[in-house]
Structures are given as C-alpha cells and as structure tokens.
Amino acid sequence: MPPNLTVYIVDDDPSVRDALGLLLGVRGYRTAVFASGEAFLQAWQADWAGCLIADIRMSGMDGLQLQRRLNELGCLLPVVVVTAHGDVSQAREAFKARAIDFLEKPFDEDKLIAAIEEAFSHEARNRQDLDRRAQSQQLLDELTRREKEVMELVVQGRHNREIGPQLGISVRTVEVHKARLMAKLGVDNVADLVRIAMQS
Amino acid sequence: MRPLPLLPAAGFLAAYLLFDWLSYVEPLLGLNITPWNPDTALGLVFWLHYGRRAALPWFLALVAGDVLVRGMPGGPLATVLVAAWLTCAYGLIGEVLRRQFGGGAMFGSRAAFFRWLLVVAAGTALNAVVHISLLAALDLVPPADWLRATWRFGFGDMVGVVVSMPLLWMLSTAPGRARLRAVVWRLETLACLALAICVLWAVFGYIMTSEFKHFYFLFLPLIWAASRQGVHGAALVVFVLQLGIVALVKANHAANITVPELQMLDAVLALVGFFVGIVVDERRQVAEELKQTLRLAAAGEMAAALAHELNQPMTALAVYGKACEHLLARGDTGELLKNAIRQMIAESARAAEVVRRLRDFFRTGAMQLETVSAGDLMEDIVGQFRPMFGQYGVVLDVAQAPPLVVQVDRLQIELVLRNLLANALDAVRARPQGERRIRLAAENIAGRLRFSVEDSGQGLSEDVAARLFEPFVSTKASGMGLGLVLSRAIVEAHGGTLWAEVAAHGVFRFILPALDTGE
Fold first, then answer.
1. Tens digit of pLDDT for each residue in B466-501?
2. How many CA atoms within 13 Å lie on the side-chain side of B142?
3. What is the number of domains present in chain A?
4. What mean pLDDT value characterizes chain B?
5. What is the domain extent for residue A90?
6. Is residue B438 domain-shared with residue B360, that is, in the same domain?
7. With a cut of 0.85, is the ipTM above it?
8. Does A122 map to a domain?
C-alpha cells in the first residue's frame, strides 16, 4: 500500500461510521471519520490523498451533493458511494460525477476492500501524474526568458533558421540557447522536450 | 348426469305457475301469447343453475301452465307438442347463456350485459317465429294473425327476460342475495321504492286519458336507484315497476291501454336503468381498486422506511462482525475486540427497537382513536420541529388553533404533519437565509378542522401538482416519493382529504372531521 493514503469515511450514522473505522483499521488502513458532508468539506485540504467513502442518504448535505461540491473545488480524491437502497438514477449520478464504485449496505467486505484498492491505485496514478507535472514545471521555471521563447518555437516545430530572424538573434545563438535549455531539462531529443512542455 | 334435487324442482314448478298466472294478461286468441312473460326469465335462471337437468321440470311446468291457467285451449296433443318445442328452444338459449357466462357475470360489465342482451333478443325472436308458425300449422293461429302473434309473443318473452332475469338471477345466488339485502335495507332504497309506487299510481291514474304522456316520470325513481345503488338497485326498481304496471292493468281490465306499446316503453326503461347501474358499479369498483392501491402504497412506504431503519444497524453489525473475525485471526483479544462485541450487542438492540416502534405504529392494522384538541396536535409537532428550524434559520409562524377536537390516531396524524413540515423545510432550504418562512395553521371550516402548511418555497407548478400523489414520484434527490402518498392514505382513513394547491409558494392542506368545539 502506498504511504500517506487515508480512507475518509463520511456517514451520519455513528455506529456504521465507527464499525467501518474499526474494520478498515484492523485491515491496516489509515482512516478518518466525519459525521457529515459539511464537516468533511470544512476539514478538507488539497493535499489529502486516499479515497472517500460517502453515504448517499444523510441528513443535511447528502453524498451526491458532497461529491459534486468536491468536484467543483477541484478535489481529485476518488469517491466510493454507498447507499442502503440503491436506485439506478442515483448510481448514474454518482458515476457521472466520476465515482469509483457504488456499494449497497450492508457491505460485502471483499467488494468494499476491492473498491478501496481500486480507488487507491487510481489515486496513485493521479499522484504520479501530478508529481511528473510538478517536476516539469520546476525544470521549466529554471529556464531564462530567452530560453523559454526559443523552446516555445522549437515545440511549435520551427527550424533554427526561422527562429533566429523571428527573435532577432543569429542562428548560432539559437543553437546555443537550445543546447543549454535541453541540458537544463535533462532531455536529449526534441520529442522529450515536447512532452515536458505539454505536461506543464 | 346427477338427478335434479326434488325441492328446487318443485319450487321452480310452483313459482313458474304463479308467474304464468300473474302475467297471463291480454292473451291473444286465448293462447299463451301475452305481452310480458317473466316465467321465461325464471326458466332461464333455472337452466343457468342446473343445465340440461332443468329441461324436464320446465317441460312439465309448460304443460301444467297450459292446463291449469288456460284450460288447454289447443287440446292435449297441441299442448304437449308446443311445450316440447318451447323446452327445446328455451333450453338452447339457456345453454348459450350457460356457455357464455358460466359464473353468471352477466350484469358485471357493459360488455357482458350487451352480449346477454344480444343472446336474449336473438333467441326470443327466433323462438317466436318458429313457435307461432307451429301454432299456425296446428290451426290455432289464423294466417292473418301470424305477424301480430309473432310480434307480441316474441316481444313478451324478450321484455319478460330483460325486465325480470337480472333480479331473479340475483335472488338465486348467495352473493346476489347478500348484495340485494344490503341495498334494500336502506332508507334511501325504501324512499326510492315509495317514489316508484307514487309515480306509478300518478301516471297510471292518468294514463287512461293521456296515453303514456307522463310515462317518463317513471325514469325518476329508476335512475335515482341505479345511480345510488348500482345494478342491484336498478333490478329491484325495474321489477317493482313492471309488477305495478301489470297489476294495475290486470286490476283495471284496461282494455283501452295498448299493453304491447307499454311493454316497449318499459323495456327501454329497464335497459336505461341497467346501463346506468352497471356504469355506476364499474366506476365504484375502479374507485375501490384505487383505494386498495393507495393502501398498498402506504404499506410500501412503511416497508421502505423499515428497510432504511433496519439497514443501518445491520450494516454496523456485519462490519463489526468482520472486524472481530480479523481481530481474532491475528490473536488480538484485547479491549478492541471486547468493545466491538459490546457495540454489536447495542446494534442488535437498536434493530429490535426499530421493529418494536413499527409494530407500535401499525398495532395490528387498527387505528387507535383518541380525542385530541387541534392545539395539542400543533403544539406537539411544533415542539419537535423548532430546534431543527432554528438550525436552518427558518421562521416558523404558528397560528392560534381553534377550539376544536378531533378523534384521530394521534401517531398517524403526527406523521402526516411531520411529513408536510419536513417537505416545507426542504422547500425553503433552497431559499436564501431570511426568506425561509413556514406557516402552520388550523382553522374551523364549517365544523371541520383544516390544517394548512405553507412555505416560502417556490410552490408547485400544475405539472408537479398533478403527479404529486403518485407513488415513487419525487422532486428530491434522496426521497422515495411516498411520503405524500402515505399521508393522504392516512388522512383518508380518518375520513378526511389532503391536497396541494397550485400557487407561487408551497401550500398543503388537509381537512379532518371534527367532533365539536372542545370548550
């Protein structure tokens, strides 16, 4: 299991909440429980990683509303929706809002664990993506203004001979800038350069 | 074929002869060619019950009638021959009816009634043609009178069957008798019959000079009975009217009344009555079915509530159980395990509590009526809702209750009020703070207690209002759409009505019969 992943449980029923916390704790997951969607939103931080298990039927904000609100906030936590009486329209709404799974109460333990694991691997992919993106951004930040200008034109597919006159510098200088920026970004061909530029 | 029991056969014979004698009015040529033959209806009912076994008693009744009532005008041979033919012909009609309506559902629907009418009309017409031709061949009917005799005999049979058979059939079956009893022992039916006799007397006291001009008055009691008591009421009044007409004609020896024409009017009268009665019955049945559906919907709502309420402790139980399994598997028998087991015991107690509460609610299906004042009902429910309303910044306006008391199942009416207030709360939560108002009022509307729940929400469009009371229709994301269905069923069980009004803000009202002012 990747480190730092937490199962966030939102259910307005104290017993169900407590039981889930216990079971997942015993199975070795890190858990955090919340009594309502509002409480979860209040506590939520952008760097939380793991997955969210939310009950649909809750007094106050229901699970689907919570899911929508989190999407609006740009929260990428994968969501597993649970309900005591599933109906098709609820399931549809949940999946449209990118839920990982839709479980019915009482839970089947294996399905619950499978859903959490799927959410976690989803989350891990998300994190890797984010990390790569952050790295690329970091590398790009080290380039000078001129180097960035040269890179943009290279990525657009321009030749050194075109770039020089466009920026008002000699072709030779373009070549120097290009070699230096590729060294800074740690790439040795234009294809990798394009990839990093796209990721940022 | 089992032999026919003796008692019904003897009873049939006696009744048949009585009918024959009663209806032997205005005979043509001294033969049994009369304008009204209820004896045929009796025979058909007999045949419907006993099938071909009815043939012999009917034959004997026909012969006996000819001998005793008319003194055998055509001689013994003609009497036996004619009786044999009539037994065959009537038997055929009876057999067709028996095949078509085995259980006797002739007067249950318009379609069945039509088919019955068709069989009777075609059968009697055919029989009349052959029967009179037979009499003509025996030289009992002169050829010049053939058409008149056929017309009168056929029409007499048909009117006799149409007018009398429904009532005779109802009298001959146990459920029919039970319904007739229920219909007759009512003041309204007795009034209806009294009116029928009055009208009859008035119309016929007059008719000698006015020639049925006032016949249409007879529709009055008939339509009254049919529209109130359905086909059973209609059958009764039709028969009484017919009996009255025949009795008056027979008593007055009113030769100047053209009886066959009167019969035609009477047949139309009977048909109209039966049609109205059948339509009323059909409507009533649809209404009954609807009520049953509502009852089912209410049960469904309770079941859904039960499912949710039970699901929570069951989920917790199952999850605790799994956790215990894992704890035991890794040999952890410490505080964590003990705590989990304690929780499981608490959860099963919670599930039992849910079941107990529901049982209390239903209390074996009977309502527990108690006398409650309108003010108490409102106070209780407002007390339950105040904290929640405060939490959402809802202003609750409670009007002064009138001094009325109602006899209701307090728990159930509270459930209705709770439901309406919860709906109102949901409606106003869509509004910004400061515009969330709910008003609860009770008023005295002509001695009945009307509750109103109004909210400052967006109200109902006509569309939504029309579908509001259908089960499983909900405007909410997490509702099952049965709350209002259940509420309406409860209010109706209390003899009241519940409705929503189309308005720019939410308005729900229900009305209950009140006892009196509880000063």
1. 777 765 555 554 444 557 777 887 888 888 888 888
2. 5
3. 2
4. 80
5. 6-131
6. no
7. no
8. yes
